[in-house]
What we know:
Helices cover 23% and strands 31% of the residues. It is an alpha+beta fold and 235 residues long.
Amino acid sequence: MTGKAFSHPRIRISGDRSFLVEYGEAIDETVNEKVRTITELLRKAAPDGIELILPAYRSIGIVYDPLKTSYNEISGILSRLEAQMGEAVIPEPRTVDIPVCYGGEFGPDIEFVATHNGLSAHDVVRIHTANPYRIYTIGFAPGFFYLGGLDPRLHTPRMETPRTLVAAGSVGIAETQTGAYPLDSPGGWRIIGRTPLKLFDAARKEPFLYQAGDSIRFKAISPEEYTRMAEGGQK
């Protein structure tokens, strides 16, 4: 474990039926891998009464029914799972390519990101597509992935006033993170492009194209390619 990981989990009570289990103090692959591992083990060992298991960057949120189980029972299970980490079978991570049309009507904030960082719009695209990004967690909206590894040269503050509507597929930057909106929704991220892929589709056998632990690799495409892929019903 790295210095960013706790030697023992820290538990914070967050209500009469929920608590947070913290495994580290920063966004870190080792910490996040432990979160993924414990999550998989807990889902298999969870007693009747656990209603939600919510993995995040460095912690797991647990919501339970106090009439069916208790904090003491769940925390006891978590302690035992620490010794079983080597037995966990978690999905092999994949690298998922996400085509993105940058700038123009699809990326209205790309010039802001460029100017804020003393770059050109071309530089923003080049840097943003240079390396894959690990998915640390999925949340906020179905399929919204939170990625680690954004190049510091692209760090940009959120909008002071969020938009009331951000189109599905929009790719944005907020502070030290980048991500994409799977559904039309409000949002304050700086939008630099859009993908024609349906990042979330409840009608698909697998609604998401990816899962926590996978990596996302953004690929720049032209407006013509975007239109062709969108009209072709890319999944």
